[in-house]
Q: What sequence folds into this?
């Protein structure tokens, strides 16, 4: 047992520390000590949790835990007093405690509203309903942009998506012009490099595409027959071109799945032109094979290879890009087995190919597992135009067509 | 010594009578009686033959004054109540307003309208006519909100070569006081930032400036910083000052004791929406008198016109938009 502390010894408040840039409060998870315990310098006193991580409140110096007012499970604002340590005169001197003697032990204030000066007390702000969130729930943020905000953002070339992380301080938690200017000023502390025009173009396309409800279906496709077929060819097509040709046939059978919904009308494609993604310097280009449904696979190989070269050299003519109704992307080349890529904004469909790998498959005839080469094929689609069933049928048909590569 | 809004009007008239021999005042019971509100008290004695009692005909009063103005005089016509000026409407809007346009002859006429509501004034003694007259090209419409402005703007009105409708607010006549009369004034047609702020702009004029200021004071308790703009002259209107204020605050409330339809508030909002849309953080709002004739009963009257508390309520709503 430790001797009971004398009343004359200095008290050091235990303060909720700043736990991260955008963290305003944290929840007490557990306390490592009880009142009366002796603690050493730098030991963890309390475990606290934010929405990002579990962290600790540590003792800045050794002492005796005199008071622990923080309640487990409650949230406290950064800067709130969680308890008091009784410390030595020397430590108090070193920590500058004697300059401002602590107020008598009092209940810590539970977090109400994050900070702000008192003159703002009556202003309506969004009260956090879930503690630990850097942005309060139900805050408007950048969902509503006033004409003034829009004008300023247009001036700066900003989009609503750029402000997604800004917690608004305005009415209903809206992002105000002051929030915007503060946010922009704060960015200046970071290293900043200009985005390439390619990056900006991709960003623009993806942001616009993301305004739609996009969904993805997945189907494992066995590639052994396809790979065997490919081996026998003198002019070899890659798996992406096989898939492109298969998709073009499937779409010529059910073109409405590649339609676009504009208002209450479905716009059907004029021709089965299919694009394919080619990675090029800081972005992705999508050359297009026109009327892919009307040429056998073997006739497409040379066109395909030429377009890849042109795209990589960023010399793709305008006539060989744009206007396609679906895109093929072979993310398997990055070793990825599954992904949910985003279709181009003017397209409804995106067929993705994962990396092939040898996997056991049950052979019902032999009554044993046999090794097969399998890849995950994904079809990402605009859910306004088609549903999972239609997407599934289209993908099944592609898989079926790839099972008879000689007919492609 | 303190000077009321009404005394400032009397002193301005005294001064122009003394300084400019072309000036005379014409109106009902303004001579020996000193006018319905005593705005010309003792002036008839001090300036014999230049403060003249008129017959009970606004039509005749304005018509005669226009004739005198054409001949080089600077007449001031006092209406007993703004409401009665409609009996002289033809002379004001068809003759005075168009004279210079039609003939090249200026019409330096001032028509003083004791305007706005007072408790118990009722439908015929409470109207605000500024929007009606502002509608007509050729008229200047002044709406002073302070003792100082009442004085300097009346001097200005007499000096102008255009016909001026001078809307003096009856509610301010006795309530508003100043220590002394000013030596200088803002330029003609310039609005005043009466109270600077950052969170919202209230554009007002005449008596409503004081309701807006009280509301701004109320909201300052909640930490809001409200800017109050006094238009002073509703026509011409100082669009630049309004836009500059909205650029600072992003929010606009226009308060007018007049009815909403086609009013000054509507005009201010139209200009801000058309020329300053990109300055707005919220849809611009207006607060006018209720759209009924002005009620007689003081309690009803108190809810008919915008007041500090209704302005404060409108501001609170605007700040949450």
A:
């Amino acid at each position: 047992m430790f001797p009971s502390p004398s009343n004359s010894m200095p008290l050091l408040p235990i303060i909720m520390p700043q736990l991260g840039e955008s963290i305003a409060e944290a929840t007490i998870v557990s306390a490592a000590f009880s009142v009366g315990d002796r603690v050493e310098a730098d030991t963890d006193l309390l475990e606290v949790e934010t929405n990002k991580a579990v962290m600790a409140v540590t003792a800045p110096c050794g002492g005796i835990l005199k008071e622990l007012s923080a309640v487990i499970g409650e949230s406290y604002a950064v800067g709130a007093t969680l308890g008091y340590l009784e410390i030595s005169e020397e430590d108090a001197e070193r920590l500058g405690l004697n300059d401002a003697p602590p107020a008598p032990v009092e209940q810590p204030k539970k977090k109400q509203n994050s900070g702000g000066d008192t003159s703002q007390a009556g202003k309506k702000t969004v009260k956090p309903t879930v503690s630990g969130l850097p942005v309060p729930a139900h805050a408007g943020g950048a969902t509503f942009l006033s004409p003034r905000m829009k004008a300023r953002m247009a001036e700066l070339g900003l989009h609503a998506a750029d402000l997604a992380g800004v917690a608004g301080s305005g009415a209903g938690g809206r992002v105000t012009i002051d929030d915007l200017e503060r946010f922009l000023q704060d960015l200046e502390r970071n290293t900043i490099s200009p985005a390439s025009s390619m990056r900006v173009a991709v960003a623009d396309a993806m942001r616009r595409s993301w305004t739609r409800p996009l969904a993805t279906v997945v189907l494992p496709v066995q590639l052994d027959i396809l790979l065997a077929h490919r081996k026998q060819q003198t002019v070899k097509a890659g798996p992406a071109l096989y898939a492109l040709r298969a998709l073009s046939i499937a779409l010529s059978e059910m073109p409405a799945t590649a339609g676009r919904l504009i208002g209450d009308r479905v716009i059907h494609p004029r021709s089965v032109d299919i694009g394919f993604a080619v990675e090029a310097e800081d972005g992705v280009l999508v050359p297009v094979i026109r009327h892919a449904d009307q040429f056998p696979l073997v006739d497409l190989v040379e066109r395909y290879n030429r377009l890849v070269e042109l795209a990589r050299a960023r010399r793709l003519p305008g006539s060989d890009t744009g206007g396609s109704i679906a895109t093929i992307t072979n993310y398997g080349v990055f070793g990825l087995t599954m992904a949910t890529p985003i279709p181009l904004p003017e397209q409804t469909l995106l067929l993705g190919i994962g990396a092939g790998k040898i996997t056991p498959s049950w052979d019902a005839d032999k009554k044993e597992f046999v090794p097969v080469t399998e890849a995950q094929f994904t079809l990402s689609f605009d859910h306004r135009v088609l549903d999972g069933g239609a997407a599934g049928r289209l993908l099944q048909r592609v898989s079926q067509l790839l099972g008879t590569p000689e007919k492609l | 010594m303190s000077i009321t809004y009404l005394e400032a009007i009397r002193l301005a008239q005294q001064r122009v009578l003394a300084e400019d021999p072309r000036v005379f005042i014409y109106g009902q019971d303004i001579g020996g009686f000193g006018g319905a509100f005593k705005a010309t008290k003792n002036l008839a004695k001090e300036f014999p033959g230049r403060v003249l009692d008129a017959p009970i005909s606004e039509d005749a009063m304005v018509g005669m004054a226009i004739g005198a103005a054409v001949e080089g005089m600077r007449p001031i016509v006092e209406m007993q109540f703004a409401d009665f000026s409609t009996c002289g409407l033809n002379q004001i809007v068809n003759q005075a307003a168009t004279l210079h346009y039609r003939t090249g002859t200026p019409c330096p006429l001032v028509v003083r309208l004791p305007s706005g509501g007072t408790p118990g004034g009722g439908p015929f003694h409470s109207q605000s006519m500024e929007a009606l007259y502002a509608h007509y090209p050729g008229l200047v419409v002044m709406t002073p909100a302070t003792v100082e402005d009442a004085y300097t703007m009346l001097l200005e009105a007499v000096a102008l070569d255009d016909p001026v409708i001078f809307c003096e607010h009856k509610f301010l006549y006795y309530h508003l006081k100043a220590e002394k009369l000013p030596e200088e004034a803002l330029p003609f047609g310039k609005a005043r930032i009466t109270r600077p702020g950052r969170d919202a702009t209230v554009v007002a004029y005449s008596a409503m400036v004081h309701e807006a200021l009280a509301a701004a004071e109320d909201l300052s308790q909640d930490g809001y910083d409200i800017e109050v703009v006094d238009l002073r002259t509703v026509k011409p209107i100082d669009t630049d000052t309004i836009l500059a204020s909205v650029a600072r605050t992003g929010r606009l409330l226009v308060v007018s004791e007049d009815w909403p339809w086609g009013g000054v508030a509507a005009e201010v909002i139209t200009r801000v929406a058309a020329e300053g849309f990109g300055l707005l953080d919220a849809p611009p709002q207006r607060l006018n008198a209720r759209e009924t004739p002005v009620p007689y009963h003081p309690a009803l009257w108190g809810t008919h016109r915008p007041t500090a508390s209704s302005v404060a309520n409108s501001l609170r709503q605007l700040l949450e938009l």
About this structure: Chain B has a mean pLDDT of 96. Chain B touches chain A through 14 residues (CB under 8 Å). The radius of gyration of chain B is 19 Å.
